[in-house]
Structures are given as C-alpha cells and as structure tokens.
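Summary for the steering committee. One of the milestones for this cycle was to obtain a three-dimensional model of the protein with zinc ion bound, which we needed before selecting residues for the alanine scan. The sequence and ligand used are listed below.
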Amino acid sequence: MIDLHTHSFYSDGTFSPQEVVRLAQKEGITTLALTDHDTLSGLNEAELEAQKQGISFIRGIELSVFDEKQASFHILGYKMQNLDALSPILEEIKQSREERMRAMLSKMKDESEISVSYDALAEFCHGTIGSGNLAQYLVFQKFFKNFKEADTFIKNFKGKPYGVFVKQAVEGIHQAGGLAFLAHPYVLKDDSILSRLKEIGFDGLEYAHSNHSAEQTAFYLDLANKAGMLLSAGSDFHGAYKPDVHLGVGKGKNPLSDKNMMNWL
Ligand SMILES: [Zn+2]
Ligand SMILES: [Zn+2]
C-alpha cells in the first residue's frame, strides 16, 4: 500500500510529520509522500522518521495555482532534489495567501459576529496559513462544534484566487529536479486543462484520490495512459481535520497501490 498525498500540521493537517509517518507505518504503507500546501517545512522531519520506521519516503509538495481559465487548483511536486529552487515561488504564494486571508478576515468581521486577527491566526498555525487553518482556529476558539460547521461558515467569505500561474509552478518543480502532477482532477471546472497537460508541462496526474469515484478513477487512468503520463495515487490525509479520509485508502475503502507507478517511484 502507498500514499502519495498527505498533509501535516505545517499546512492544514492536524498531525506532526513524525505522527503521519508513524501512523502510515502502522497502516502498512510502504511508500509515503508528505505533500503539505505551499511549504517544504515538514520534509526533513518526515524523512528522518521514515528512515527509522523503514518506510520509503518521497519528498512532496502541493502548490496552489491558477491559469487563464481555471481560478484555483492544486498541483503536486515529487522527488525535488534542490529545494532552494522553489523558494521564490513559495514566497510569492505566501504573500498571495496572506493578502487573501486578510481580505477574508475583514469580510468575516464586516458580515458576521466573528472577528479574528490575522496575527492571532498566524500564531496558531505551524506554517502555511489557509482556510483549513482558519476552520481549525474557529473550532479551537469554540465558535463552532466541528470542522464541517466551521468550513461551511468560512465558505461565505472565500477570497480571490491565490497562488502562482500554473506554468510557473510546474517549471519551478522541474528546476528543483522534481516531477509535476495534476492533483485530484475532479475539482477542475475547466476540462480543457486535461487536454493541455503536456502543453503546460505536467509529467503526470493523480488518478486515484479519496474523492474520486470508481468511474473517475478509471477515466483519469485511461486519460493518463493515452497521453503517456505518469500516475500517482493519494488519500489527501489531513488527520482529524478530515476524519473520513484515511491513510492509504481511496474512494470506497480501496487500498492505494503502486501497481501503475513502477516507472517513476
Ligand atoms: Zn488539493
Ligand atoms: Zn492535499
């Protein structure tokens, strides 16, 4: 069993990188990637723990991107060698995230009873600051009973698209010596991205994901194979923040396997 899409508390997961690795080992996962949103902060800790636990570890990241037609989506970077090459992109995304979060908080203050200061939220976060962290903060502050309620509330204040232009992010991953994959394609509103994967520079796509139906999984597998693209599979584990998602498991409790990934893992 493998899992190539997981989050720690350096983005919007609730566990430390070490805890994610230990849990993965317990679940019988043999290859694990940590793919926090827009940060590389957890990779060293996870890599060391994976060595201790005897798990094969892949360095990963999930970057926030947009393009002309698609406001906001995610891409996965794997196997980066030169992490410093990503610094300019990560800095740009950090600034764009901060602008968006400040706008969200000010809208929330104007249109609801709840006021949260950006600095207090930043102090609560271990790394990346996003809407998932805001949901966790609102539950921590007892404004809501659970993350689902907090997430639903926050949707009213969702800010403008953030991140960097998709081509820039794909090139950054390549400059760092890594491979770029389209994450969970089911979220795309603009299907034309699927026909432009090669043109944009993608190496592969995440065909199996905990939110992909059996039909979607089969569709993306076929599409990737026809386009000669690499495949990846991940649960998108976030710990207690998304309690229905389990490490190493796709939709319908199907274990994630590496059977289509021998050409790059
Ligand atoms: Zn994502
Ligand atoms: Zn994710």
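Key point for the committee: The chain has two domains: 2-90+161-253, 99-157.
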